[in-house]
Every structure is written in C-alpha cells, then in structure tokens.
Write a structure and sequence with these properties.
single chain, about 240 residues, alpha+beta, three-stranded mixed beta sheet, disordered N terminus, N-term/lysine_N-AcTrnsfr, acyltransferase activity, transferring groups other than amino-acyl groups, GNAT_dom
C-alpha cells in the first residue's frame, strides 16, 4: 500500500499518498492554546479518518476510489491485531492520523484478501467506469512489483500519516509520530520502518531525519520508481 503524507509528491510504502521518540502519551497536550489528544483509533473513527485522507491527499489514486474504499481500508487496519493506528483530536475534531502494521502481521495483500468482499463492493463504482484501469492500479497497490526492501524483523511498518490542510505546521504530524512510536514499542517492536520516494521528496525525508530516522536502503518499486527505506531504532 502507498502512504500519502506531507507534500503533494510524498509517498511511502505502496500507497500513493494518499510515513521523536517519546516515553509519554501525547494525550491532553496543549497545542496553540487548545487541547490536543492522541489516542488509538476506534472503528467509529473510520469515517473521519477517510475524510482526513481525502482532504490531505486530493487527487491521489486511493482518494479517487472514494470514501467507501477508504473506510474499508482503514477499518481493515483497525481490525488487524498487528495494526498500530493512532489519531489526533483537537477541539473534538479529528485532524490527523498515523497507521502501520507489525511486519510479523503479514503483507498488505493479506488485509486485501481478508476483506476482499468489502473491497470489491467499495470498488464497484470505479470498476463500472473503468474496470481495467482500476484493477491494474489496485493490484499494483497491494501486490509488490519490483524490489522488496529489507525491513528488519520485529519492525512496525509506518504506512501513512495524514493531516488536515489547516492543521499542517501546528505539530500534529510530529505528535502523531511520537505516539505511533510509543504504541509500536508497547507492541514489542524494536524499530519503525517506512518507505518513501527518493526523488523530489526533500520535505518528507527531512521530516523523518529530524525525528531520528536514517536511510537504510535504496531500491526500485514499480520497475523504475526510486525509493528509500528509512528506519528508526526504538530500543
């Protein structure tokens, strides 16, 4: 799956994006004179998460599949025992999320297979309009084409960070990453891994470097797309 994040060109994992170590939860922290609350995502958050995704990543492929597909996708992550899914609320509004999965929990394709009927139903409108294009793109999202990065065992793979446009620059992404790392450590992970574009992606790469991530590997995805594997040790 591809991860959409800070900039128009940012992508990590296999989602088009549509990726500071902390010893404390970010719950009830003051942010710009308001109260911010990070917590694990719940099923009832899925609709708002889909809304944030659509606003954060307009025009990206997963967004074009519609809110029904996004809700199904994020519901699948919440239901996965190896999932790490955190949201940020400010003034009772969900304004950002971070989602990932333990490497030991399996590949993204396992989620796709488990929720296949729901994904097919959510894809129905797009399949009617352009079945060949949609199926080709969905297959590329969930099934690897090209090199596989060497993700360490016992890692959590960060798939996506999404923040509402009007909340960017307020520290939400950093807060989400802090809490994502804390919950990953609580699940027994010893590192966090993510993949992102190698070219024209300085903003995202710089964000992760600032938070202690380093480039561990360069590889190619979808035959000719240059990617980076970035890692952070949680020990």
């Amino acid at each position: 799956m591809r991860t959409e994040f800070l900039s128009k060109k940012y992508e990590h994992g296999k989602w088009r994006k549509l990726h500071r170590l902390s010893t404390k939860s970010c719950s009830n922290q003051k942010m710009n004179s308001t109260i911010a609350n990070c917590r694990p995502a719940r099923t009832e958050d899925v609709s708002q998460v889909a809304d944030v995704h659509s606003a954060a990543f307009p025009g990206f492929f997963l967004t074009t599949l519609g809110p029904g597909f996004l809700r199904t996708m994020y519901r699948a992550f919440i239901s996965n025992v190896g999932g790490v899914f955190v949201i940020n609320e400010q003034n009772n509004r969900l304004d950002g999320f971070a989602v990932g999965i333990l490497k030991s929990a399996g590949k993204d394709r396992n989620l796709a297979i488990r929720f296949l009927p729901q994904f097919i139903a959510a894809l129905a409108p797009g399949l009617i309009r352009n079945p060949v294009k949609v199926m080709r793109r969905v297959a590329a999202q969930f099934f690897s084409v090209g090199e596989e990065p060497e993700v360490p065992n016992n890692s959590v793979i960060l798939r996506s960070i999404g923040v509402l446009p009007d909340a960017k620059g307020s520290g939400v992404a950093s807060r989400l990453l802090d809490e994502f790392e804390r919950l990953s450590r609580a699940k027994g992970a010893t590192s966090v891994a993510l993949t992102t574009d190698a070219l024209d992606n300085e903003r995202a790469v710089g964000f992760y470097r600032k938070h202690g991530y380093h480039i561990a590997q360069e590889f190619s995805q979808d035959k000719n797309r240059k990617m980076l594997l970035m890692l952070k040790d949680l020990q």
